[in-house]
Each structure stands twice: as structure tokens, then as C-alpha cells.
Design a protein that fits this description.
about 60 residues, alpha+beta, three-stranded antiparallel sheet
Amino acid sequence: MATTSAPARTVLERFPAGGPRGSWPAEEYAANQRGQGTNAQVVMDLRTDQFLVVADTTTP
């Protein structure tokens, strides 16, 4: 049986989950990164209660 591994990711920035209501700093940061050509996504790290902005790591 073949197995696949998850793609490697790089954490670009971390944001606390308890920000002010209506404030989305992780989403704003990710949007800025996407505007510069980086495929950035926001994920939640439940263990640390933080939003992480991640991008796929390219391997040569």
C-alpha cells in the first residue's frame, strides 16, 4: 500500500486567537502575502490557541 506524506509547510507568522471582535490580523497578513505572490493560508493550531499563516515549502 502506498503512503503519501503531507506537504512541508513554513510558518510565516503567528497570531493569538483572542484578538478583538471583528479583527482578523492573520487573514489580513495572509492576504498581503498572497498579493506578493506567496500562497499563504491561515490554519488554527489548537494546541497553542494561535492562528498560523503558513505557506508550502518548496524543496529544490
